[in-house]
Amino acid sequence: xxxxxxxxxxxxxxxxxLLRLLARLAVRVGLVDYPGRRKRHRGEIPLIGGPxxxxxxxxxxxxxxxxxHPYRPLFAALAILLIAGLLDDLRxxxxxxxxxxxxxxxxxxxxxxxxxxxxxxxxxxxDNISTDYWAVPFTVIALLGLINAINMVDGADGLASGLAxxxxxxxxxxxxxxxxxxxxxxxxxxxxxxxxxWALNMRFPWQPHAKVFLGDSxxxxxxxxxxxxxxxxxxxxxxxxxxxxxxxxxxxxxDMGVVxxxxxxxxxxxxxxxxxxxxxxxxxxxxxxxxxxLLVLLLALVLGATAFLAWRAGVPE
Length: 317
Fold this sequence. Notes:
Radius of gyration: 19 Å
Low-confidence stretches: none
Helix content: 55-70%
Shape: globular
Structural class: mainly alpha
Strand content: under 5%
């Protein structure tokens, strides 16, 4: 256990170093987010979430896992999303171009990686609900949904990365509880990497503003990682309830769903930018941005813990 903690600490430190290095490079090449309109941050913030998480994960997995063979499709999908995200952060891709990249990544995961949502569990209390012939489109839609959920909630320092970090931590603990050693190793590696990013993305008393942003590359990579490992930890006998993984991701999914329904009801595009997310409402109610983010993260922690403990206690799905 001490050795595993040491590995995670090393991966955390290496990712922090990569973040500092990539931040300087991003400023030189113009991979930064400028303040203006809805964006109220100060100065030019490097958009290096994608490159830093990808590089930190690559180092960590090479360092901790004996063979990368089962994860080649995942890294291929992440590379596609990284390239598309970087191009979007630099030049603004069209929604169609981003969708094509996300679909290709999803098909890599499904057909090459054989990662599909085959079951929704016994949600109705009568029998297991199988996706059957809908497994492929359901999985691809789940990937697109998670990518957009993370992207849409990325409107306050530390929020999207913090929500992803909490979900990944619960998935890692679930992998340990179900005896999936390799999955647990990779997941704890990802947790160490994302924690390093969150440390520079969150507001703290000693850090009043984020030093780095996720960017589209980061949000897409986090969405893909959450999709892959939600499937990996829930599939087969002995896995956690599929609905438990949904609870781990509940807040970004609920926020996306409510915002889309509200915008459609008003006749607006569901994917246009706006200040109508849950954290925006908390800020409008008088909270500081840091307080609003901490409250949302606490709620996500409570929901995740509820799902995990309910599964362990054998509560029906």
